[in-house]
Amino acid sequence: MRQPSYHPRLKPLCLSLLTVLPALAFGADPAAPDPAGAPPMAIVEVTGTGQSRQVQNITRADLQQAAPGTSPLKTLEKLPGVSFQSADPFGSYEWSTRFSIRGFNQNQLGFTLDDIPLGDMSYGNNNGLHISRAISSENIGRVAVSQGAGALGTASTNNLGGTVQFVTLGPANEAGVTAAQTLGSDDTARTFVRFDSGEFAGGTKFYISGTRMRSEKWKGAGPQDQDQFNSRIERRIGEHTLSAFFNYSDRREVDYQDLSHEMARRLGMDWDNYYPDWQRAVNAAKGIYSGAVNSLDDAYYLGQGLRKDKLAGATLDLQLTPALAAKVTGYHHGNEGQGHWYTPYTPTSAEVPISIRTTEYTISRNGVLGDVTWELGMHTLNAGFWAERNKHMLTRNFYAATDGRYIDDFLRGPMSTGFLQSFVTDTRQFYVQDTIALLDGRLKINAGFKSPKVEIDAHTFIGDRADGTITAKKTFLPQVGVTYQLSRSDELFASGAKNMRSYQPGVNGPFSQTRAGYALSIGELKPETSTTFDVGMRFKRDAVQGSVAVYYAKFDDRQMGIATCAGIVGCAGTIVNVGKVETRGLEALAVWKIAPSLSWFNTFTYNDSTYESNYTDNGRLVAVKGKQVVDAPKKMFNTELAYDANGFFARLGAKYTDKRYYTYLNDNSVPSYVVANLSGGYRLGSAGMLKDLTLQVNVTNLFDRSYFGTIGSNGFAASDVQGTSMTLMSGAPRQVFFTLSGKL
């Protein structure tokens, strides 16, 4: 087995980039403007002025400081209230990705790309796709985060908590080619090329881009590969705009082994699956262990995820009168995915005690959404709708395994099928809102409501999983907010909202139970709802700006999935209504402009999320009342220094994450940790035909801290006193990446 590399290896080509630095710097133009029109290392915007909710924007300049290929979700972890975890340095390995805001996990948040819903972006997804597959990070212009409750018009029926809205970097007005080459630790090689047509006579412009990512795992063996194509075209028609896009992604990622506390002590934090040692995996499946291994579940041969996605849409943006605007968008998303797991629990034959267990997904979503904005005196009226039909297929198959050769494609012709389900989900949602401006605009009050209805029709063709029809709907989910300008620099805000999360089809919803289990749980099954409030203040001075907010959330009818066996066995789970959860917290953000070239960014979060109800599991009382919510750190603190002058730029940041429980009874947890990251570089200017040349280095986990990042990778258990639950994943060690970028 390949040994893990905790210390980065400087590839020969990376070193060659350093050797050309002096030659390029000789003709550098430090004053050359950034293509995005802002200093590349600008600090995150403390935005939300006029918003009645806690809102911040991550700008294009802020996204550029991350290592190319880094998930945009990872760049948000510096914001107050946000917790992000992953087992890889880029935060794009989807099995391990965990994202939460104010104690609400990823499945309870809303995500959109240019208003198009991305679903909950979970690994075994049924209603969307991860942002890392939806678009290359270089093509994102900004990200807006609403920590409390998202805007009423957000196309999501997941968002009990906040929303994350990604906005594409549109086609440039001038023609050009942008390219970037990244090389670094663990054989990472990533190439990005984008062509902008510039604006033609008549007002048409477009871009196309291609991305190729090749990397090895930081421990064990196996590739993490992705190919992407993005395109967008826009045309001005008088005061109106017609735009369309098409994005494609082909991602193949080999899994890291899930750990337990006991395994980490016995085998080490860098323990991984057997691949490519096929014979050792076969021996283990026969009960013949070697080294410190003493269990069938200590390692498997290989696991991986394959995903192909096509996402397309068109938008007509109309400015009907100076006071009346409308927008309508249609979209399609097609997905095929397979998760491969070499299981010793289902043999291929007497000679080969291993088979390949797959979970296979297809998604076909078609939707339309629209809204109208009408300014009428002191009123701004908004109304809109969203409709979607989603056809989702879910299959558990077993394929014969003959040897240990790496299979990097979709399997066909299974030897048996565990279950086969289909789901048709119809979503209808509309909203109405009025914003009233008083006191010469210093006081703004907004009030409105949304009305969602989500119906799932499930059919089980093979196996004993549940089927039937279930509907989640609310006629009136209100939202109210107010902002008041104390001065040009200070603003107060407050908001309250009621939200509902619809039932989920697929591997984690109520239809993932057996028919008998579903029959027992349906009486207590209700759609999850939340009531959220936040109150805060924003302030801006010449040298300091920031915000502070306090919040409260009540979460009713929480539906909790309980694993009934090891993840690889794939037993049907159970769904339990665990009642109420309450959250109280405080968020603070401050940016200090120490000097024109030096800024200091800080955020602090205190979040107290507790279960307020006990529950029963098979007649046994589970006393979780008063316990902390799993994977919800109480305290987080982020600090970052940024320097930008004379062509040089650098950022040094660190984040503290408090301990996190992974059992509902809080009898086991992972400890707190601090991880630091460094990025820096030099803007080289022009060299021949090349413009805006920039050399950048990114160092993740700067001090090579060993820690548990992801928890709950195989779900959460009521108790794990012995520390044997295999649901933890190690964070990536120190990694180094070099990027040379420029334009033609």
UniProtKB/TrEMBL annotation:
State the UniProt keywords alphabetically: Cell outer membrane, Ion transport, Iron, Iron transport, Membrane, Receptor, Signal, TonB box, Transmembrane, Transmembrane beta strand, Transport
* Protein origin, superkingdom: Bacteria
From the Swiss-Prot or TrEMBL record, state where the protein is found: Cell outer membrane
Q: Main localization of the protein? A: membrane
Chain ranges of the TonB-dependent receptor plug domain: 53-162
Domain TonB-dependent receptor-like beta-barrel stretches: 259-702
Q: Which InterPro entries match?
A: Beta-barrel_TonB (IPR000531), Beta-barrel_TonB_sf (IPR036942), Plug_dom (IPR012910), Plug_dom_sf (IPR037066), TonB-dep_rcpt-like (IPR039426)
Signal peptide residue numbers: 1-25
Membrane disposition: Multi-pass membrane protein
Q: Which PROSITE patterns match?
A: TONB_DEPENDENT_REC_3 (PS52016)
Give the family from UniProt.
Belongs to the TonB-dependent receptor family.
Task: Output this protein's name.
Answer: TonB-dependent receptor
- Gene source species: Pseudoduganella umbonata
